[in-house]
Amino acid sequence: MTPVTAFKGKSVAVFGLGGSGFVTAQALVAGGARVNVWDDNEHAREKARAAGLRIENLAAADWSVFEALILSPGVPLTHPAPHWTVIKAKEAGIEVIGDIELFCRERRKIAPGAPFVAITGTNGKSTTTALVAHLFSSFGFSVEIGGNIGTPILALAPPDKSRVHVIECSSYQIDLAPSLDPSVGILLNVTPDHLDRHGTMENYAAIKARLVAGADHAVIGVDDEFTRAIAARLREAGREITLVSAAGQKFDEGIIYEGGRLFRREGGRSDLIADLAGVASLRGAHNGQNAAVAIAALGALGRDHARVAAGLASFPGLAHRLEEVGRLGKVLFVNDSKATNADAAEKALLSFDEIFWILGGRAKQGGIEPLRPLFGRIVKAYLIGEASEAFAQTISGAFPVEFCETLENAVPKAAEDARASALESPVVLLSPACASFDQFPDFEKRGDRFRALAKALMDKP
Q1: Is 162 known to sit in a ligand binding site?
Q2: Where are the domains of the chain?
């Protein structure tokens, strides 16, 4: 744990006692703060009480005694409307911040300049976070990995110049971290998502931009208009920046992915860094971009191309993101449950041909219409969840569809059709292009269920 001493001897309010909120309250107590916690969920309050935390109904509290409100990232800060705790905090004239901000303050206090790599983007940030951590580990560094990828940042060991913190940051977390200042800030991409929480694309992009704007060194993928604009502004301001592209963007200095290989552009020439051919965990151009930004995050270490190539080749990949579950004869099962929007699903569809596609759930804005150019890769679709009817209308005869309602129905049907086909390399792909919340609490549980169903078929005699 990282004890937070910034509020030692002061009173703070903590709202939201999920994974990160619970740990945040404990870290503040460990740092000497007087902490009052609340959550609308009674079970969460009971857990906090059992851990010795002070429970106080913040709706009836005297907010004049608090120095700050520490808010869970899942609680609305601005849109669709500020949460009632945010309104009370503003009325009391106190700041509203989150756990990433607390870490940043503690880092500046106890270990200024300690290695801290922060990663954001609409898609790809979890894979990139895992890959950056893996590469630093392959160079012999002690690495702490967490944030939005799973382990709360304050549950990690404290910042220290001898260890590298590699942290995935969601837009919600960045919005609660006004002084976010990583040594390396990575911005992968900005495409429509979470507009219910940020209002407009411009506001969403501006929040993402804060992560690289505060970094000592910015690494930016420039394959969409928003990130190109952000990079241009930072360059005009004279900031240290590395550009990355996997879509043919032209620049003199940076790292590009082209034809399955990674190149460093420097002084008008291109030097080969690594070939990703045969690295199943880094299949596709989107993973080429992830690898490129990970190399840039290494700084001078990234110039040891032989060691970088070995690190990339040994990367095991990330669960639920193009995860190869196994084979049933010629049929490959791929778990891409983390593809909760069309942009993420696009990366999976671009990675395979001969696809038996399982999709559906709770649809995001725009549905699957953006995926129409890739419909030629689909042999058949198996629709599950709330979005089934709407997705069937979008597909509208482009390829056969079957309404399956659940994964329990979809997986065996897709496997049977794939095995019976005359295709050489059929893929049963779960890439839902939807949130999971109509049938599962999160994409992990959805992916776990797909994996279990696929393995049950593979284990049949």
Answers
A1: no
A2: 11-97, 104-313, 323-459
